[in-house]
Amino acid sequence: MTRSLAHAKINLFLHITSRRENGYHELDSLAVFAETADILTLDVDADPQDAPSLRIEGPFGEGLDAGADNLVMRAASVLRQSVRTSDALPCWPMTLTKNLPVASGIGGGSADAAAALRLLAEAWQCGEIDLAPIAAMLGADVPVCLAQKPQRMQGIGEILVPAPVMPRCAMVLVNPGIAVPTPAIFKAWKESRADFRAPALLPQAWPDLSAMVESLHTTANDLQPPAIALFPLIGTVLEALKATQDCHFARMSGSGATCFGLYEDMDRARIAAEKMRERGWWAEPGWIQT
Ligand SMILES: C[C@@](CO)(OP(=O)(O)O)[C@H](O)COP(=O)(O)OP(=O)(O)OC[C@H]1O[C@@H](n2ccc(N)nc2=O)[C@H](O)[C@@H]1O
Ligand SMILES: Nc1ncnc2c1ncn2[C@@H]1O[C@H](COP(=O)(O)OP(=O)(O)O)[C@@H](O)[C@H]1O
C-alpha cells in the first residue's frame, strides 16, 4: 500500500490582475498548505485490474462521485495518456479519504489530483516525467498542489514563483458548511466592475509573524467581497475568527467559503478552533507547512 497526503491549499491573498480572452482571470496569489489533508492510497499489493477504480470514504466523502469525473480518476487518465510506453500500466485500487470540505476554496479536489499524479508516477516508475504541465491540464490549482509548499501563483496558476521565507505560524481553517461554486464567485466579481489590482509587493523574507501580518494587510482577497455578498455567512465566520483570542489575521481563502485565522502557536489555534466548533462549524487547527 502506498499513500499520499493531499493538504488543503490556502490563499493568504489573491489579487485579480487581468482577464484572458478565454474568460479566465490572471491572479497573483500566495498559496500555503495546511496540516489537514485528504488521504489517497494505492493498493499496490492487490491484483492489478483492467481499469482504474476509486473508493471514497471519510467525513466529506458522501455525495462525491467516484467515477471518471473525479479529479483523482481524471489525473490517472491524463497521466496514463502522457506516459509513452508500450507496456500496459497496472491499475491498482485507489481509496480517497475525504477529510476536506468540497467546493470550499481550499482546493481539495486539486490536492487529490496532485496526490494521484505523485503516487501513480512513482508506482508506474515514470522516472523524470515533468508533472507540472500535466497538472496544469487538470485545473488552475493543481500545479501548486504538486509540491505542497508556500509558493506564489501567477498567470492562472501555472506560473509558480518562490514565496517569501515564512516564520513558523499556526492556522485555523473554518468552514460553515456551505459549498461555494468557484465560477459563480468569479462571475460576481466581474459583475461588480471592480478594478484589476497590481501584484503584491513582498519582501524576500518575513522574520516573524508581525512582519508577515503587516505585509498581508497591504494585500487582499479580491474574491472575498463578492463571496460575502452571495453568502453573508462568510462575513459572520470572519468576524467570529477575528474575535478569537490572539488571532493576528483572518481572511477568506480562494473563492470561499473557508476562512483562515493566523496564530502564534498551536495552543492558541486549538482554543480558537474549539470556539468555532461550538458554533457548529468545521474547524481545523494546524501548522502552515513549510
Ligand atoms: C480561486 C482559486 C484560487 O486558488 O481557488 P479555489 O477557490 O477553487 O480553491 C483557483 O484559482 C481556482 O482554481 P480551480 O478550482 O482549479 O479552478 P478551475 O476549476 O480551473 O475553474 C473553475 C472556473 O472558475 C473560473 N476561473 C478559475 C480560475 C481563474 N484563474 N479564473 C477564472 O475565471 C472560470 O470560470 C473557471 O471555469
Ligand atoms: N476528489 C475530489 N474532491 C473534491 N471535489 C472534486 C473531486 N473530484 C471532482 N471534484 C469536483 O470539483 C469541484 C471543486 O471541488 P474542490 O476542489 O473541493 O473546490 P475548491 O477548490 O473550491 O475547494 C467540486 O464541485 C466537485 O464536484
UniProtKB/TrEMBL annotation:
Domain of life: Bacteria
Positions that bind ATP: P101, V102, A103, S104, G105, I106, G107, G108, G109, S110, A111
Single annotated GO MF: kinase activity
Residues at the catalytic site: K9, D141
Record field: catalytic activity: 4-CDP-2-C-methyl-D-erythritol + ATP = 4-CDP-2-C-methyl-D-erythritol 2-phosphate + ADP + H(+)
Family: Belongs to the GHMP kinase family. IspE subfamily.
Record protein name field: 4-diphosphocytidyl-2-C-methyl-D-erythritol kinase
Gene name tied to this protein: ispE
